[in-house]
């Protein structure tokens, strides 16, 4: 059962004691079990999973909300650790199933269960016709359970259980339609590439245990500053190994290629992976171990450089994609790059702030894209002409959309809100969070990375405006030359169960950034709630950086303060969106079937800079050649040869023995004579 909590209260402030903390995890797990049984017991009855799946998340969110409100009313200066039971006890190693409640973990729980609940509700409409309906909700509930284990785990091993659990669930959900070999391969690709990064995580854990004798976050981070040399080889190695795990889980260069292929899963899965759960785990790990990274300036520089490079690289690819989900996939990689840039330069609150707002508008974008795909697919499949998707094309391809504003006005409006938010248009959420990262990059003295962040922001506005124009504006191309009359008969807005979550996410995409409005911005009320909320978590890391001379200068590399550059950034975003809409709006777009093959640099961007092809030639093919050689030489030649040789030898001995016992008198006489001659020869 639950033991007493451990924490530190100051000044006689109201104490915080978690309310039913185990229930936060138990409810999604129970939902996973019930829906898993339902896949066999009530396979055709979709009422139970439609209730159990979303209800498990909504109830978990309610428990999180109660605890969040309680923590907000308390002056909590230390983590509250709830001990459930002992897990591993071996010598000096003592690991319990302990849950850590502090400002960072509670904020993450709010994001995971809140956005996750909306995605579950949306899934009721999106997956209604799928034969694997109960299995889908079982995987989805299990996914959220493991993500909550990840963010609530009070030790690195327990976090690693959640870390691996979300990897397992991503494999199950990306390859959900496993009958399609390409989809199954996409799930395997995600699973394998994440294991590469996880090897670094494991080695880092071993080093930390050898160094500190514990893997619990509270004692480990408290002892870090006194036990590790600033900029030392050990702390640099540990943090770089942790970052290797982050690059795999959060799809940063060079382990980014699995994330676009993850679009093979159902669209709500894409929203869950990209917005609220798995890919944010790497950012959370660095934020949770911020003291270690503050002690390793080289590692922080690597994190910032990789994040900025990934942000620009992915944005350049997104600008020439035609699959609506892949545009958003590369957008996610790019925005994750912003988050790593923030935590890399030491602006930990800014990184978590963007993680939060990104969860709102990216979930909205993915679910909006799902609404578009759902409407187009149903228009093709149930239009009465007997033709399915294969006869019309790919429902994900934006060249087969166009003019959907007339048929899906709610989805159009909600997705424009998310587009303007991610582009950084004020006063939407992305303006405050992304511009804070850009500002701190310059203020901390990284002029090159500051320029990269600005360029990425410009590309973000362009490729998102391009997505909206190709999907919702211009002439409708869903039915080729049949025109809007045919589209008007078949295309329609999605039901309430799907657009309702879009409306709530649109509201959050508008007001989500108001949680951290800096004092420097004019004409806006100062409200730095999130900064003060997370301050107890990041205060030790900030103190380490300031003690070694790393403090923001509060000026841009080329001059000017935060207010000036916030205005310039907003103007760039508005100008980029407006120019893209005006440039592409009147331009005719050929359908997927009519489009000419891309050439030149456009093809390079569309083919993702040929990174997959490069990996195939440098890693996959040589590896296959080595494994085939091992099979032919070691397995077939040596191992099979030895086993088969023993068998052939036994057969030969059996044959020889059979010849001696043939029953022919002449054979016996010959053997007798040979034996007699042998004896005489020896005796002579």
What does the average pLDDT come to? 89
Uncertain runs are 1-12
Q: How do the strands line up in the largest sheet? A: 1-2
Q: Which oligomeric form is depicted? A: single chain
Overview features:
684 residues, mainly alpha, two-stranded antiparallel sheet, 3% strand
Structure description:
By secondary structure, the chain is mostly helical. 70% of the residues lie in helices and 3% in strands. The protein has 26 helices and 2 strands. A two-stranded antiparallel ribbon has the order 1-2. α3 (103-126) packs antiparallel against α4 and α4 (133-152) runs antiparallel to α5 (156-174). The protein is globular. The chain starts with 20 loop residues before the first helix and ends with a helix.
Task: Give a topology summary.
Layout: H1 21-41, H2 47-72, E1 80-90, E2 93-101, H3 103-126, H4 133-152, H5 156-174, H6 181-212, H7 217-227, H8 233-249, H9 258-261, H10 267-276, H11 281-288, H12 290-294, H13 297-318, H14 324-345, H15 348-381, H16 389-392, H17 409-423, H18 429-443, H19 447-472, H20 483-490, H21 496-511, H22 529-547, H23 562-584, H24 600-606, H25 611-660, H26 665-683
Antiparallel strand pairs: 1-2
């Amino acid at each position: 059962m639950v033991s007493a909590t451990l924490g530190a209260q100051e000044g006689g402030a109201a104490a915080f004691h978690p309310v039913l903390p185990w229930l936060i995890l138990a409810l999604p797990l129970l939902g996973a079990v019930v829906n898993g049984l339902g896949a066999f017991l009530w396979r055709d009855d979709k009422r139970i999973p439609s209730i159990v799946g979303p209800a498990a998340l909504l109830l978990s969110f309610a428990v999180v909300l109660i605890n969040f409100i309680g923590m907000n009313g308390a002056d909590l200066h230390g983590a509250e650790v709830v001990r459930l039971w002992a897990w591993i006890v071996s010598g000096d190693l003592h690991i319990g199933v302990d849950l850590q409640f502090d400002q960072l973990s509670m904020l993450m729980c709010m994001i995971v269960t809140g956005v996750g609940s909306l995605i579950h509700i949306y899934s009721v409409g999106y997956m209604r016709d799928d034969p694997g309906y109960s299995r889908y909700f079982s995987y989805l509930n299990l996914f959220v359970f493991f993500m909550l284990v990840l963010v609530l785990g009070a030790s690195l091993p327990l976090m690693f259980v959640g870390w691996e659990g979300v990897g397992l669930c991503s494999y199950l959900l990306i390859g959900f339609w496993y009958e399609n070999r390409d989809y199954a391969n996409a799930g395997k690709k995600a699973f394998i590439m994440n294991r590469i990064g996880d090897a670094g995580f494991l080695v880092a854990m071993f080093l930390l245990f050898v160094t500190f004798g514990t893997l619990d976050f509270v004692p480990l981070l408290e002892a870090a500053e006194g036990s590790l040399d600033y900029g030392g080889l050990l702390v640099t190695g540990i943090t770089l190994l942790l970052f290797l795990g982050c690059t795999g889980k959060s799809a940063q260069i060079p382990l980014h290629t699995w994330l676009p292929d993850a679009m093979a899963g159902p669209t709500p899965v894409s929203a869950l992976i990209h917005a609220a759960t798995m890919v944010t785990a790497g950012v959370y790990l660095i934020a949770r171990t911020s003291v270690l990274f503050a002690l390793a300036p080289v590692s922080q520089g690597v994190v910032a450089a990789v994040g900025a490079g990934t942000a620009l690289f992915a944005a350049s690819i997104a600008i020439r994609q035609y699959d609506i989900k892949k545009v958003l996939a590369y957008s996610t990689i790019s925005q994750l790059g912003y988050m790593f840039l923030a935590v890399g330069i030491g602006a930990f609150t800014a990184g978590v702030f963007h993680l939060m707002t990104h969860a709102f508008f990216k979930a909205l974008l993915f679910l909006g894209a799902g609404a578009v795909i759902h409407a187009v697919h149903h228009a093709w499949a149930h239009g009465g002409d007997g033709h399915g998707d294969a006869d019309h094309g790919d429902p994900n391809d934006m060249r087969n959309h166009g003019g959907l504003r007339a048929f899906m006005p709610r989805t159009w409006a909600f997705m424009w809100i998310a587009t303007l938010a991610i582009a950084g248009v004020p006063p939407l959420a992305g303006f405050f969070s992304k511009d804070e990262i850009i500002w701190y990059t310059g203020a901390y003295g990284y002029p090159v990375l500051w320029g990269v962040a600005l360029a990425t922001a410009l590309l973000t506005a362009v490729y998102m405006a391009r997505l909206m124009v190709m999907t919702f504006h211009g002439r409708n191309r869903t039915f080729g030359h049949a025109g809007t009359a045919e589209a008007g008969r078949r295309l329609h807005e999605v039901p309430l169960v799907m657009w309702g979550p879009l409306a709530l996410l649109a509201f959050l995409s508008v007001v989500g950034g108001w949680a951290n409005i800096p004092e420097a911005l004019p004409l806006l009320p100062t409200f730095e709630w999130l900064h003060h909320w997370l301050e107890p978590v990041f205060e030790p890391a900030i103190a380490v950086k300031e003690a070694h001379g790393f403090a923001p200068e509060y000026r841009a590399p080329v001059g000017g303060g935060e207010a000036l550059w916030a205005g310039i950034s907003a103007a760039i975003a508005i100008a980029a969106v407006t120019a893209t809409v005006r440039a592409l709006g009147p331009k005719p777009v050929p359908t997927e079937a009519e489009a000419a093959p891309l050439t030149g640099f456009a093809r390079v961007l569309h083919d993702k800079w040929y990174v997959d092809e490069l990996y195939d030639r440098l890693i996959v093919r040589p590896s296959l050649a080595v494994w085939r050689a091992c099979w032919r030489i070691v397995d077939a030649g040596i191992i099979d040869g030895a086993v088969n040789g023993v068998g052939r030898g036994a057969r030969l001995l059996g044959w020889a023995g059979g010849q001696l016992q043939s029953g022919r008198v002449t054979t016996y006489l010959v053997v007798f004579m040979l034996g007699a001659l042998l004896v005489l020869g020896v005796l002579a």
